Amino acid sequence: MSDDTIRLATIGRIIRRRWRLLAVLAVVGALFGYGTSALIPPSYTASASVLLPGQWEERELLTQVDISTSSTVLDRAAATLGWTGVGGSELRDRVSAKAADGNIITISGTADTPERAQQLSDQVVRQFVTFAARIVGDNSDPEAAARPEALRQMVVQTSRRITELAATADPGRSVESVQTRTELAKLRTALQEAVNKLDQAAPTTNKANMVVMGPATRPTGEAPPTRVQLTLAGALVFFLLAVIGHLAAARMSRRLRAEPEIAAALGSVLLGTVDVPDERPAHRPEGHGPRARIRRLLGIDTRWDTPAPQSSGDEADRQIRYRRVCARLREQLPSPRRLLVVVPDGDEIARRAAGRLVDEAESDPSSSSSSRGYPMLRVVGVSVDRPMVPDRDNESGALVVLSAGSWTAGELAGIAEACADAGHEVVGIVVAGTVRARPAQSPGRPPDDATLVLAVRGHAAGGSA
Fold first, then answer.
1. Cα(444)–Cα(209) distance, rounded to whole angstroms?
2. CB-based contact 346:387 (threshold 8 Å)
3. Which PANTHER family does its entry note (predicted)?
4. How far apart are CA 430 and CA 270, in angstroms?
5. N or C: which end of the chain has fewer CB within 10 A?
């Protein structure tokens, strides 16, 4: 598993290098969402509001919300509507209610047509108001409704009788008469406070007088999710799944990137790294079949997780790296040999680096003299699925050239075993990487890092001009 941190640059690289595949998957997701919308019938939602007068606590409003969507209210609404195959249990999934600020309960109904949605919302509101009034007892029990008024009249009569008793009491100023009038005054005050409390409690009994704030408005558009929303959601989901799949594959990748790991998998030593200018390959090694054309069309014939090429020096700097590799190879061999340069099939960077190594070995001026020159190299391609290396003939060793981050430890071990089966010892490994070449300097313009030297007459530094 790769331990690289997932950054926004990584996601940007996925979009930049896999935009064709992501676009195709987004279109497939949009088609999937459109097909899903065709299977889901359109729905419409209408809402009506009910005002609850008086003072209501939050828990009381929540109780009224539950009552509005209760089975009793929905069963009565379904029976009144008389829709075929639609009962109270079916309306439970179509009706919702919520409490808003200002003691307002909003009841929403969803149906397959705007007309039905409007009828459903209005009917549920009507049944809710009727059922709530019946619970409180408004206009359902005349005797209970008349009891507060009768009690009020009785209190008034009692207060009047107390006043008469106080007036007919002993007009003298004895202690007993004063105490009697005081007790009667206290009794009259208590009765008056009871009447006041009864008047204050009267609005609570009128809470059942709910006000319907007009009929439900007929909806003009579909309720979410609409067909457009499902189409866009399908495209977005498929796009995100594709990006997440790329990230997961990169995290789970077992391709070797570190040079010590590559050397350990092949069981040999690293001779060095070489640079290859980043340029579009001239041919596609995947073939020309239908699958190869589809891969090229979708842009998946090249890897996306390779790092961006780094800036490099000029051609002379790159040539020095190849010469150093050839020099180390010459020092490691006891005598001049002919070696096979083994390149995994499909590794275009390694193939170009191997060709450059062969050219550098052939251009060695010491190869024609009596001194030891560079080994003679011959490039062969080896399939990583079923590696097969030519048998030992004139060559007596193998030099493996590959790019980092392209092959797993098992694939490299298979190449090493194929070399051993053919009688070739892996004498070294060369890792190739892409770099961004500098633009060529114009003939009449000196390089940026050139130092201009002013030739003057005179002696050395410190002399007179």
1. 98
2. no
3. CAPSULAR EXOPOLYSACCHARIDE FAMILY (PTHR32309:SF31), TYROSINE-PROTEIN KINASE (PTHR32309)
4. 6
5. C
pLDDT of amino acid 70: 94
69 DSSP 8-state letter: T
Looking at this protein, which amino acid is placed at residue 320? I
Q: How is residue 143 written in tokens?
A: 């005797």
What is the Cα–Cα distance from 310 to 423, expressed in whole angstroms? 38
- Mind listing the pLDDT tens digit for each residue in 51-60? 998 888 889 8
Helices (H), 259-314: 259-266, 290-298
Nearby residues of 321 by Cβ (< 8 Å), 6 or more positions away: 272, 273, 274, 275
Return the half-sphere exposure (C-beta side, CA atoms, 13 A cut-off) of residue 13.
16
Q: Dump pLDDT digits (tens) for 366-393.
A: 544 444 567 889 999 999 988 999 887 7
- C-alpha distances in Å from residue 287, one per residue of 60, 291, 292, 346, 349: 75, 9, 6, 10, 17
Q: How far apart are CA 321 and CA 274, in angstroms?
A: 6
pLDDT confidence of residue 459: 38
The sign one gets for the Cα dihedral 120, 122, 127, 128 is positive
Q: What is the pLDDT of residues 123-140, one digit of tens each?
A: 999 999 999 888 866 544
Query: What's the pLDDT score for residue 57?
Result: 87
- Torsion, CA 298, CA 299, CA 305, CA 307, rounded to 10: -160
Tell me how far apart the alpha carbons of residues 317 and 67 are, in angstroms, rounded to a whole number: 84
Query: What's the alpha-carbon Rg for the chain, to the nearest Å?
Result: 47
Nearest-CA neighbor of 276 among 322, 244, 238?
322
**N-terminal to C-terminal alpha carbon distance within the chain:** 68
The band of 235, judged by pLDDT with boundaries at 50, 70 and 90, is very high
What distance in Å separates the CA atoms of residue 47 and residue 105, rounded to the nearest whole number? 10
Check residues 305 and 440 and name the one with the higher pLDDT.
Answer: 305
Contact call for residues 225 and 233 (beta carbons, < 8 A): yes
pLDDT in tens, 186-223: 777 877 777 677 666 555 455 557 889 989 999 998 88
Handedness of CA 357, 361, 362, 365 (dihedral sign): positive
pLDDT band at 251 (very low <50, low <70, confident <90, very high): confident
